[in-house]
Amino acid sequence: MNKQDFNEGLLGFLDASPTPFHATNNMSMMFENAGFIKLNEVDKWELEAGQKYYVTRNDSSIIAFTYPKTDLKYTMVGVHTDSPNLKLKPNSVIKEHGAVKFGVESYGGLLLNPWFDRDLSLAGRVSYLDSNDRLQSALINVQKPIAVIPSLAIHLDDKANKDRTVNKQTDICPILTTNEDFDFDEFIKWQLSNNGINDVKELYANELSFYDTQKAAFVGLRDDFIASARLDNLLSCYTGMLSICSINADKPMLFIASDHEEVGSESTSGAGGSFLENTLHRMFDDYEEYMQMIRASLMISADNAHAIHPNYPSKHDTNHAPYINKGAVIKVNANQRYASNSTTISKFMNTASSLHEPLQNFVTRSDMGCGSTIGPITATRIGIDTIDVGLPTWAMHSIREIAGSDDAHSLYKILIGLRA
After folding, report:
1. C-alpha distance from residue 163 to each of 33, 155, 157, 242 (Å)
2. How far apart are CA 23 and CA 395, in angstroms?
3. Helix, strand, coil: what percent of the chain each, to 5?
4. What is the side-by-side order of every strand in the sheet holding 385-390?
5. Which one of 45, 62, 262, 334 is least enclosed by Cβ atoms within 10 Å?
6. DSSP state, 174?
7. pTM of whole model > 0.70?
8. Burial class (CB within 10 angstroms; exposed 0-12, middle 13-18, buried 19+) of 90
9. Tens digit of each residue's pLDDT (9 = 90 or more) over 166-207
10. How many CB atoms sit inside 10 A of residue 152's CB?
11. What's the rounded Cα separation, in Å, for the pair 105 and 356?
């Protein structure tokens, strides 16, 4: 796949995936189109050599794998589906001061200030009871801008450009309407009806998040950049998904996209949960064979990396400062916040070199804290050799992030070429 087609598909995937639920659903459809067979965790699996399979958990995490059976050296790609956002509280509607607004929680370590003065919509999963007293779930995506968080005018806050802070409880509530007759349940039923779901006896719980309706786009004099919400980490989701869809079924490869990385991964559908381990044991039910596969395989933990910011260069170690459009980044940390080691780095570098694809290194400044990824979590839980890589990004965890238009396609080619 050439770079232009790759990036055009990326923009569409970003716009169609406002929540982990939608991202997982879109990846499921992609796998179906690529000939992968859907599995269900509650069924007994009868895997056949030479086939390709996928399975989801919680509608927000997904694993796809080839099954050559005789070749135990798997290339695995691990990413995450979630991004920082504003999530609705259960009793979210607040009517006061002539307006209706929503109470929200901050999910993950998001930059709050960029959420002001944006055209916001709402998406996620809704659970309900149908007329046959069966519990059902459905995805909704309002798409239309329905809310805004207006800034406080500078006339009322003369320190706004000096030391502005944001109170997560009071300052960041999206405002929906001035019509105080607004009924939240009727609003949700209307959204379900728009999706052809009219058999709703009673609404139960929901997991809904706000998102910016501005579309993903090329930016820059020569389309140098891709600007979008949720690049962290849908950029890696798309790259890993296309990689496994682009190989033959006789090559051993596995792709896992986990939820809840931004809040620590400790959930049934997070990398700290059992989803990957359970799946691998069902693929290789003989323990000796399972352990042979684990120790022969390589996990590539793909998450975004902090590109050096031209306006804030002092925030990087000069010798380990990745640039936009200069290639994928190998992430290293002496304290194991990243799982890369000399052996896994060498395997990755060897493939990139053979393909003439550029690579960069990132080590955080020694006087600054270092974030982490699913890499160390997966390496610890599974015991698989792991490398942490990423795509250089500006404005990470903002409502709109920036990445290079060259880098994801370069990583895609490396992932296809890797052998454990």
Report:
1. 51, 15, 10, 44
2. 21
3. 30, 30, 45
4. 37-38, 51-57, 61-67, 253-258, 75-80, 298-302, 385-390, 328-331, 359-362
5. 334
6. P
7. yes
8. exposed
9. 999 999 999 999 999 999 999 999 999 999 999 999 999 999
10. 11
11. 45
How far from chain centre, in Å, is Cα 171?
27
Distance CA 387, CA 341 (A): 7
- Can you say how many angstroms the Cα of residue 325 is from the centroid of all Cα atoms in its chain? 21
- State pLDDT tens for residues 40-56: 999 999 999 999 999 99
Structure tokens at 38: 């859907």
Residue 74 makes CB contacts below 8 A (sequence gap 6+) with 65, 252, 253, 254, 293, 296, 297, 298, 420
Phi and psi angles of residue 99, each rounded to the nearest 5 degrees, phi first: -145, 160
Query: Hey, what domains does the chain have and what are their CATH numbers?
Result: 3-83+229-417 (3.40.630.10), 86-212 (2.30.250.10)
- How many residues are present in the chain? 420
Phi, psi (deg, nearest 5) at residue 404: -80, 150
Task: Establish how many alpha carbons lie within 13 A of residue 129's alpha carbon, considering only the half-sphere containing its beta carbon.
Answer: 7
The span from the CA of 387 to the CA of 340, in Å, is 4
Beta strands in 58-134 (DSSP E): 61-67, 75-80, 85-96, 99-107, 120-129
Quick one: residue 276, left, alpha or beta (phi over 0 = left, psi -120 to 50 = alpha)?
alpha
Place of tokens 């099954």: 67
Residues in a beta bridge with 362 = 331
The H-or-E segment that residue 296 falls in is helix 287-296
